[in-house]
Amino acid sequence: MVTMLHPIAQRLPQRGKANPNESLLDLKRSANSMHFLALVLGCGLINLAGTVWTLAATSPEKPASAPSAPLQSTPFVSGTGGYDTYRIPALVVNGEGHLLAICEGRKYSSGDTGDIDTVAKLSQDGGKTWGGLITVWNDGQNTCGNPCVVRDSTTGIIWLLQTWNLGGDHESQIINQTSKDTRRVFVTCSKDEGRSWAKPREITASAKLAHWTWYATGPGAGIQLRGGPHAGRLVIPCDHIEAGTKRYYSHVIHSDDHGATWKLGGSTPRDQVNECEVVELADGRLLLNMRSYDPSQKARQGATSPDGGDTWQEQKILAELPDPICQGSIRRLSWPADGKPGVILFSNAASRKRERMTVRASFDEGRTWPVARMLSPQPAAYSCLAALPDGTLGILYESGPNNPYQALVFSSFPLDWLRE
After folding, report:
1. What global pTM score does this model have?
2. Strand residue runs (E) in 94-246
């Protein structure tokens, strides 16, 4: 079954319009983008009129009805806009109710090191179309990335936590302490709904211990706590690797003064976890959902915090959430109200390899996940969920017909679509 979705063909380079002074690299990017278009055409995802089609995540017994079928658009296509590859999505709704999509723009290759910038785009129509590319952070040939975004509902400021390293330092060198520098933590913010960004300031001293080597913020999104003694706290999920043991753990950092300062929270009691996201539960606890390297089972891990992220406990494998050892996203869609349960959402590539982007719903505060629906059977990897102002849910995720890193795709749909 196929579902017609939003046009993206106009976002790809057009033949015959190359600048005569275009560099070989730009020509390579144009060729790569045209190759991506050819792949998409070959898979039946775009017809010649420019209409996007995707293999919808529907089963024969549950066809998606036209009124509730997902909207889809493609804000970032690798090989366009001056970047070889776009990766690592982060998604947030700004104070105007508009969507802000953030990611890494990898200049010369798809690799995790080298010249990498943080970039963004805004959508003022619910994700149907996207504005021009916004540069959040460009530090020359160095690596700026791992975006993790949170909006302070009190001040309206959008905070973006990121990491930095020298472009010539590789992850393995940083872990082995043979690199020229190390992994550093930075924060920037936007006071105009994501249109412009302050100069990033370093917070490594308060966010990273001296014996940690590798470090990553998020990626994806953080949260602001709603209730309890830590109401208003901004919480950012992170991970790190220890120098001596080379064990890797998840942890959080937080701000209790609306982003002015950031402090280190608790780490997980056991290792073999890293990239993570966090959600506040109805009883005031926090739930950390983590990428797991436990060889006993390819599934997510979870841990809870009774004190706003200062300590973590009850770490366990979440067998109901299969995972190919990849990033995932967890987000609250609604709180319990009027006798109805709250809804928490989870997204990941629910397979033994990076494919089959799937969204699940829990109606018992993350204990079980009885509702699940696949968005696409295509290759897919990282994702970021957001609760939208109209009560629907949005997701920005990596996908493509040939590999997961050909585009960042946005999709939105109502909860009822998951239940069909």
Report:
1. 0.87
2. 99-106, 116-123, 134-137, 143-151, 158-165, 184-190, 201-202, 212-217, 220-221, 223-224, 234-242
